[in-house]
Structure to design on (229 residues):
């Protein structure tokens, strides 16, 4: 029904009482804004190419799977493998994400995906990351507590992860380096935080005054010795 409405030229759709229906926003070629009240199921916005999805609730696994462009804005939590192989556009999650968020994010020329998480992530965030920018703001962490995610950036060979808040070195993949933010990082991060607060509220200045670290790949081909060529 959604696809048929878009083919008729509808530019804005509202869905109510959503309870786990999968593939919302997939296989749509025309620009459209879809507002979702409830909890969409797996593969929300998979292969999306320029549409805009607004979720007022949580989202299940695989949101933004291989997304090529557009926006997914989730006013709640998101499940596992959110942003799997995303290669363009923006994914914003107000609260936490599950396991393997941002796995195999990539970029090419002007295509540079952005993935912003207001809370924290479970294990393997940014696994095999090949490009783009991922931000973990840790806004819901208790004072003095640390991010729980382990194996952050395992196999990472491109892109950047910004983390606000504390973590231990053992929580990082061996392929990841840690650095302080330089002027370019601060400028980029300021723009991203303002995008986040523009959707979900909050004080961007206060968020930016938190303690940030930049994670980067130590190698562009960390597992090269395992291959035959």
């Amino acid at each position: 029904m959604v696809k048929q409405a878009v083919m008729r030229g509808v530019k804005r759709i509202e869905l109510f009482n959503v309870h786990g229906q999968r593939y919302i926003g997939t296989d749509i070629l025309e620009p459209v804004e879809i507002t979702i009240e409830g909890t969409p199921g797996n593969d929300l916005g998979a292969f999306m190419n320029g549409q805009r999805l607004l979720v007022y609730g949580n989202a299940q696994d695989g949101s933004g799977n291989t997304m090529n462009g557009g926006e997914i804005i989730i006013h709640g939590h998101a499940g596992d493998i959110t942003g799997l192989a995303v290669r363009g556009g923006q994914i914003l999650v107000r609260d936490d994400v599950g396991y393997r968020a941002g796995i195999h994010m990539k970029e090419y020329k002007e295509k540079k995906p952005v993935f912003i998480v207001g809370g924290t992530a479970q294990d393997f965030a940014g696994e095999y990351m090949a490009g783009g920018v991922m931000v973990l703001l840790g806004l819901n962490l208790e004072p003095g507590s640390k991010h729980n995610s382990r194996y952050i950036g395992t196999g990472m060979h491109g892109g950047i992860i910004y983390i606000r808040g504390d973590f231990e070195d053992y929580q990082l993949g061996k392929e990841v380096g840690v650095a302080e933010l330089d002027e370019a990082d601060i400028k980029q991060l300021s723009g991203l935080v303002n995008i986040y607060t523009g959707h979900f509220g909050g004080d961007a200045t206060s968020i930016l005054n938190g303690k940030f670290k930049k994670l980067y790949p130590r190698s562009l081909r960390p597992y090269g010795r395992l291959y035959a060529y």
User: Anything to note?
Assistant: The domain at 2-223 is CATH 2.160.20.60 (Pectate Lyase C-like). The beta strands are 12-19, 33-39, 49-56, 69-74, 90-93, 114-117, 130-136, 158-164, 176-179, 212-217. The mean pLDDT is 95.
